[in-house]
Amino acid sequence: MPNSHRAAVACHLPLFGVDLTAHVPKDILDLLSAFLPNRRADVGRLRAALEECDWAQLQELAERLYAVGNPYGFRQITTFGRLMREACAEQNQAELEQLTRAYAEYLSKVMVVEVDAPVLRHALSDESRKVLLPDATQLREANKEVRDNRKAILLSGVGTGEDRKA
């Protein structure tokens, strides 16, 4: 994804159909009392590392966000981590600053919804697995289609401010 568009995706999440709701399994709700304050503290760490241009620290924080979001039901945190990793690879400080602002805003707006624990793959019969769980190829193809659609929207300039400058 072109670097100028990653931050646009994060800053205009509702335009891209991103849900600002975290679907957290009931059995880990009690862990959120530590999880969310730690994520908010990450914002401060990101800002400090940006001020110091500490790319190793920025990369470490991006990796942490990428790793911790999904298991707790915060898919968007994982997305922020991925976008930040890409920006770190290019050492794009301006984009990381935008992503950090958007991440802080996301944390201030996210709504937590309790859900039943997810179905575990090993608990399903072979027949159920075929019906309920798509294979990896199907998932990759679906994810590629979503990325391509988002990229097309971004390249058109919708939601990035480019459409308003004309």
Average pLDDT works out at 75
Q: What's the CATH C level of the largest domain?
A: Mainly Alpha
How many domains? The number is 2
Number of helices: 8
Architecture of the largest domain, CATH level 2?
Up-down Bundle
| Low-pLDDT runs | 1-5, 119-134, 162-166
Question: How would a textbook summarize the main sheet?
Answer: 2 strands, parallel
Which class do the helix and strand fractions yield? mainly alpha
| Total DSSP E strands | 2
How would the global form be characterised? globular
Q: Kindly identify the CATH topology of the largest domain.
A: Four Helix Bundle (Hemerythrin (Met), subunit A)
Helix content: 55-70%
Quaternary state of this entry equals single chain
Range of strand content:
5-15%
Rg measurement, Å: 17 Å
Query: Topology as H/E string?
Result: HEHHHHEHHH
Spatial order of strands in the largest sheet = 1-2
Task: Tell me the distance between the termini.
Answer: 23 Å
